[in-house]
Amino acid sequence: MAVTSVCQRDLPHAFARGIMQEADGNRAKSNPPVLGPDQSLIYSLTATDPHPEVAAVNDMQWAPIGSEPLPPPLPPTRVDFTGNRSEFRKLVTKGALLELVTFGFYRFWLVTDIRRHLWSHTAIDGDAAEYTGRAKELLIGFLFALAILVPIYLAYFLVGIEFERWQGFASTPLFIGFYAFGQFAIFRARRYRLTRTVWRGVRFWMDGSGWAYSFRAMAWGLLVFLTLGLALPWREASLERYKMRHTHYGDLSGDFEGDGWTFFKRAWWLWLLSPIALLIFPLAPFVYAEFKAREWRWWLDGIRIGEVSLSSQLPHDAFYGLYWKVIGWWMLLTALFAAYMGGAALLVVQLSGVPADQMFEAGNTARSIPMVVMMVIGYFALALAINIVMRVYLQRDIWAKVLETVEVHNIGAAADVRGSGELASALGEGFADGLDVAGF
Question: For residue 304, what are the β-bridge partners?
Fold first, then answer.
């Protein structure tokens, strides 16, 4: 009886709870609630008809920390050269004319303008390089180099006059000394150019000893001489490795992974053809152009800056046309110079009345001065015209042809670089200019 009364007493409450649960269920079907802090996620995950957001959570894949897949490597970056050929030709033509007026001293400003043009129109990953060198630095370096080289030339000249029988003996140490100075100058000139090259606000720089490089180059040069040129690939690999291991971009160090054996396998047959090419002129430009193209590609494939590497697909015949165009221009300019000299001689003979074969005799010194002046002007004009041709074809055009085949791998490794290194003096450039071993 007591149990019955309890059940009857609790029945209204149970009935009310059933009605509320049914109402809640109907409301959930018509308008599913959003999970909130008052709902149990664990309970919802075990429900037979989970909430849509719970189903989305179920579809997510969870991975432990540290096991995420690495992103794929970035594709190689192309090197873009946007320089205008006509603009470059006007630049070097104007510079050549100013060189003629200033007796050659404008070349320091011309070299600076050429480098700024080439550097500023060369872009890697969308950012162009910058050349910060100044012509005044090159001029001062050249004057310092002259102060060292002129006494050496003078001493050799005096020895030759005083001891004529020793002149042949004196030429050997002079040649060795100038060769050593030349290799020192090549290393220091490269060091100067690198410290004036900036990309993305970070400067390249170089350490190492110029004299250590010079001695290394002399030893390899002797070996190349003794092997009739067969050791040249190993010489190039060794010297390039020394230069690159002392090359830096900010706090990234360089290296060179090219080896002499690879270079030898690419160009050994050119070594066999070289004696024939020296005897048959039309073959010589092809052999040299072939060698330079293979050398460029081998050199580019071996360059490393930190984790950044380069590669090139430069064709073996890329330079054939350029070298033959230079030869064609050289022959044309030489013919024009010969015609100019013939016309000048005829004009002087008619105006002075002195026969051409007597023009330079002792009694006709005064009358020969106009002819000498015209010869000097013609010679300088010929030299400057040839320089224009060589700068357009063998500097600008080779630069463009090489860069259009270059790819930069893992450029992201150069994203976080800190500036480092110090500026180098232009003394090496001065030596290189004075010894005629300077590059652009």
Answer: 255, 309
DSSP character string of 106-161: THHHHHHHHHHHHHHTEEETTEEEEE---HHHHHHHHHHHHHHHHHHHHHHHHHHH
Question: What would the two tokens of residue 223 be?
Answer: 């070996």
Buried b (16+ CB within 10 A) or exposed e, 166-179: eeeeeeeebeeebb
* CA dihedral (157, 162, 167, 172) positive or negative: negative
Helix axes 232-245 and 260-279, enclosed angle (nearest 10): 130
Asked whether the whole model's pTM tops 0.90, one would answer no
Question: pLDDT tens-digit profile of 355-394?
Answer: 666 666 666 666 667 777 888 888 888 988 999 999 999 9
Amino acid type, 7: C
Is-contact 337 278, C-beta < 8 A? no
Torsion angles phi and psi, residue 230, rounded to 5: -65, -30
In DSSP notation, 215-274 reads HHHHHHHHHHHHTTTTTHHHHHHHHHHHHHHTEEETTEEEEE---HHHHHHHHHHHHHHH
Give the tens place of pLDDT for each residue, 328-349: 999 999 999 999 888 888 887 7
Strand, coil or helix: 211: helix
Supply angle C-alpha 365, 369, 372, rounded to 5.
Answer: 115
CA dist., res. 335 & res. 329, Å (int)? 10
- Two tokens, residue 383: 């030299």
Give CA 308 to chain center in angstroms. Answer: 14
Nearest Cα residue to 108 out of 206, 178, 192? 192
